[in-house]
Design goal:
Family: Belongs to the TfdA dioxygenase family.
Distance between the termini: 54 Å
Domain TauD/TfdA-like: 124-407
Helix content: 10-25%
Strand content: 15-25%
Cofactor: Fe(2+)
Number of domains: 1
Shape: globular
Largest sheet: 8 strands, mixed
Structural class: alpha+beta
Number of helices: 11
CATH architecture: 4-Layer Sandwich
GO cellular component, one term: cytoplasm
Pfam family, one: TauD
CATH superfamily: Clavaminate synthase-like
Number of strands: 18
Oligomer: single chain
Radius of gyration: 22 Å
CATH class: Alpha Beta
Length: 432
Amino acid sequence: MSAAATTTHTLKLKGEVPLDKEIESLIRSGEARQSSHNASNYESAIYGPDPEGLKLLPAGTRIRLEESGVDISKGYPERPDINKIPIFLDEAFAIRNEEYPYVERGKNADPEKKALFAACTDVIDLTKHVGTELVGVQLADLNNQQRDELALLIAERIVVVFKDQKLSPQKQLELGEYWGQVERHPQTIQVPGLPGITTVWVDYRRKNGLNVNFKNVDLGNWNPRYDRAAATGMHTDLVHEKQPSGITSLHHDSAPDVGGDTLFYSGYAAYDKLSEEFKKFLDGKKAVYCSAHGYLDRNDPFGGPKKIERIHPLVRTHPATGWKFLFVNRQMTKRILGVSPVESDIILKYLFEIYEKNADIQARVRWGPIKLGYGTTAIWDNRVSQHRTTWDHEGKSKNSRHATRVTALAELPYFDPNSKSQREALGLPLDE
């Protein structure tokens, strides 16, 4: 069990009770905790709405929740039920382990996006190739044709930003369900009564034991084992899923006027940074991807937490754009198949740094300032990107950073050898 445990528990090992069942009973009873991801798997034996959280609730968040009819009378946020969190690796692996139908909404959308752009008063590109802001349109008012065109725009531009939004948690969830199967995360705090809407609120987690500060917050960008679980380490969400994440929306109803920005990095551009010969070497290769959370091995419960692992193409093809992209991230890409462990480590280190060291393949999204009762929404394609947040405000801003997230899972990853890179498809030079 965890070396951090301060209390010794004796397993009775009665013949009629299997060892794994006794361990499960011990954990679920609240007598012990298995620390697998900065203690976030089993943070508290208490679950349900948190009345203490209401004392920290930002004014803008309260307005949004109350206007949307979300019941926060018993507290906020909804803490995860420990009885619903998988303990053993085989349990966690079995979740969503069957292939399910997926519709790529952007695939047949109007390439010119006339219906979507007609509803905007302005279209502002954040950088040359990454990030776009759509002005004057409300996400809650989009029809299905506009939603399809938005899905294509997100696939092309990586991230699309909307400011001054009136977006209820229910409507945010509806958008996610339109774009795919919404992932419901058993380990995270949620909006009460709305499973599938994760609450992103570091200030609340700090009040409940998350140890993050100016010196340690970014250490995960050197080595994932030092990650503080504050989303400051570069990553792609849910790569361990059989069908990993696709479109994700993050709506901030409260944010610092300055600080707390999120950076997004393009997997299309990362792939095009590679030499043409190295692209040929990587095309068709597969890699092992692991989960953020760890679980006990039922056959070796005292061996420490183990991660879910799945195999996906190292270079993938996006079903809407048809462009190749580099599918790696330092936090969760474990090894490349078909090469030696030493070769895998060297290659992956270089591929991670392709993302991390090229400033021209990223865009920075600023959330604030946010008008009271409104919010800023960013919607990105997790398949073709990495992202990370910044904690330069250090939790000392007048306005706490609070957001809700919805992630739609996408297709079974594939590589099409006949697909093109982004620069190739756009007629841009490949070797200059």
